[in-house]
Amino acid sequence: MALLLPLGALAQTSQFGLEYRPQAAGISNGADELPLAWTGGLNSPQFSSIDLNADGQQDLFVFERMTNRVQTYLSVPTASGGRGWQYAPEYESLFPGDLQNWALLRDYDCDNRPDLWTQIGGGDVRVFRNVANAAGRPTFQLVSNQLTYNLGSGPGGFNIRLGGYDIPAIQDVDGDGKLDILSFDFASGSYLQYFRNTSAGCGGLQFRQESDYWGGIMSCFSTCTGYATGGVACRPNGTNHTGGFGLLLQDFDQDGDQDLLLGRDGCPELVGLRNTGTAQLAATNSSSQLATLPNGLGVVSLVNYPVPFSLDANQDGKPDLVVASGLLDNTDRVSLRNNVQLFENTGTATAPNYVRRTTGFLTDQMLDVSEGAAAAFADLDADGLVDMLVANHGEQYGAPFTETNYRATLAFYRNVGTRSRPVFNLADADYLGLSARNFRGLRPTLTDLNRDGAVDLAFGATHQGASFVFYFLNTAAANQPATFNTTQLTYLRNLGNTAGDTPCFADVDGDGNLDLLLGTNSINTVGSLLYYRRNPAQPLEESFSLVNDDFGRIRMANGERPFTLAPTVTDADGDGTPDLLTIDHTGVLRMYANYRAQNGTFVERTDLVLNSRTGQYEATHLGANTRARNHVVAADLSNDGAPEVVVGLETGGLLLYGTRNRVTSTRSNQAAALALQLYPNPATTKVVVETAAPTRVAIRDLRGRVVMQATAPARRHQLKVQALAAGVYLLEATDAEGRRGVQRFSVVGY
């Protein structure tokens, strides 16, 4: 009987994997390539400064609120002699993977290392201390999962609860050198609560509610600039506002106390309120609300929910002002392109003078199509170079907050580079005029549907309230510029037809015909991936019939099916067999090697992307949100016989990955089915695995991580599983010839 030992989940980098490779292809909107083209876009970012690589330079931490994704950027020298921002995803795994709503870096223990403040479910505030590792780089240790406060000199132990839509000011309110908390009250969102840090010195997290009505400020719903000041209540017809607020304290007039900048959801204006009191006792009066913001700001407006951040954005040593959207979602249907504004400080740190830069901050250097980016690749102009289409979920074409003006577009990027390094230049922002067709949620793919040698365009989309997989046939001859017949809108019959359906056409059964794998959110199917077989004897629109409504039995770590799953098929690892890649709302890229040879529950691998900092493979951390509409496609962009993998994100941008350590010889039977028996199932303390030939066995969680493995081949393994957390696992057995068998089982408490 084989001995079973726990294993770490780190992969050896000699095996096949992916790596972030933005240099493999360029994207341009004009003459110059976008320096941050392949970073995934920004919808609702929060900005903080931190030295990530211990080089003495302040780098950039970005928390994307809409998808709970972390982005990290290094401060690097530029050719012009200044400094710029370089996307560095290898530092993202330094941060906790379950951040939500807001995440700000603020130094509470005065060690010049900003600590992590964030929210947890229910409105509680948790704090992670930034502790340097041996290399001087940050690590984050949880010090409080639930901050509490006292009521004056009275009882204590009350939870500090902040509204999930708010972004608080975690700053020194009273000038005593310690971080305090200012936010609107949790219950009504009407009154500013001030939690004063009463710790004896730096490093403490003891708080007292110093005021439940800081500055005498009350929010009113009469207008977007409706605030009652000086302790005056809102007018009777001005209902108190209960939405989100983003706060930043600044001393506008250099009088030694903190004034307030704030934005609110559903409103475009950034509002300024002047403190007429003191640092210790804030006050306002009828003239505190400013018609125009001071220090050169003037009128600051963003389409919806502007939130201010203070940081040295242009890296000249002085704090600038960055204003970004604070939206949790885009139910208001506004455009999220170029939604980060930069006001550079041309004055000093203590006496700023802000000048708006029309290019904004970061987003002007990215590909960003607003939300729900999805790419497809093919040579559309017959010049021998692969071109790119990029679709979005939707964008506002007209007055904001207007449902009928919110529709999807498809952009055409012509390859003006070379066969080995493409450069995709924006040639048509509304390819085929699809914006006029009122689609929503475009999920495109380019493939030869009718087998005439010319590439056709198919896409999942919602049109006039109904969702289908539509297609336009290419009426041009093979090797000629594509001409899509858009006069007739045709769709595939007999499909599930659910919003967000994502098609992938591939020969699933090896019969030479293009079948259909459809990622779906349909509640009428068991799984999230459907397999439709193609019958070439039938007309194209009626030629696909459902074979399996839970193809691969793809599940998340908790055993539930994922949302908005997107599939693509390619020979990623170079073994001569097709692999299945998927991404879903969790932001985790999954690979199912040689999926044709797998049955039942497919064996997945998630530790796919090399972290250049650690030298280990990791799962992608691209944010997790049930509303996230991510996408994946594979194409040989560099003409080297190996596919690149392009991931589209809910935040409107793309990420580019290249393959590494591909095998050069085919494996004839490595993933051939291997019969096995496993019992009992469910298990409490142990499971028994039996196979006809000696096998090595491994237990994986549903993210593909190995949690246990056997040390020697055997025909019978008795595995002690009582130490495993209750949940669903995969038992994988492999014999000496590479044949593999997999069975799902459950561990329950005892």
UniProtKB/TrEMBL annotation:
Transmembrane segments: none
Pfam families reported for this sequence: FG-GAP_3, Por_Secre_tail
Swiss-Prot/TrEMBL keywords: Signal
InterPro entries according to UniProt: FG-GAP, Integrin_alpha_N, Secre_tail
Coiled coil, from the record: none
Keyword Protein biosynthesis: no
Domain Secretion system C-terminal sorting: 678-738
PANTHER family: PROPROTEIN CONVERTASE P
The protein's name: Secretion system C-terminal sorting domain-containing protein
